[in-house]
Amino acid sequence: MISILVWNCRRIDNMPNQCKLIKLINKHRIGIIALLESMVPTTKAENIRGSLGLDNVWCYPIAKIWLFWADHLLRHVCATPLLCH
Question: What's the pTM value of the predicted model, to 2 decimals?
Fold first, then answer.
């Protein structure tokens, strides 16, 4: 079974929020995380990915969505541009 966490998290770059997230990952064996409204520049995503202990990160900066996942769960993620009419 895959555990997925979706969190509308503000300021994931501060240590208290990262510690909360790491505790949740370890307690519930979460393999996929979606962070919404992180309010953090995407340039920090790779460092945060490393601190969470997950293998991959993908960011959609316009919508402020970050996805983190472990290699053993997903092998390939294909992103396509969002069309707005």
Answer: 0.79
Examine residue 84 and state whether it is found in any structural domain, yes or no: no
Q: Is residue 76 part of a domain?
A: no
Q: For 38-75, how does the pLDDT look when each residue is reduced to its tens digit (9 = 90+)?
A: 888 888 999 999 999 999 999 988 878 999 998 877 66
Domain count, the chain: 1
Gyration radius (Cα) of the chain, Å: 13
Q: State the DSSP code for 1.
A: -
Task: Report residue 29 CA to chain centroid gap.
Answer: 14
End-to-end CA distance of the chain: 38
**In residues, how long is the chain?**
85
Indicate whether 51 belongs to any domain: yes
C-alpha span between 39 and 41 (Å, rounded):
7
Look up the domain containing 13 and give its range: 3-69
Is residue 56 included in any domain, yes or no?
A: yes
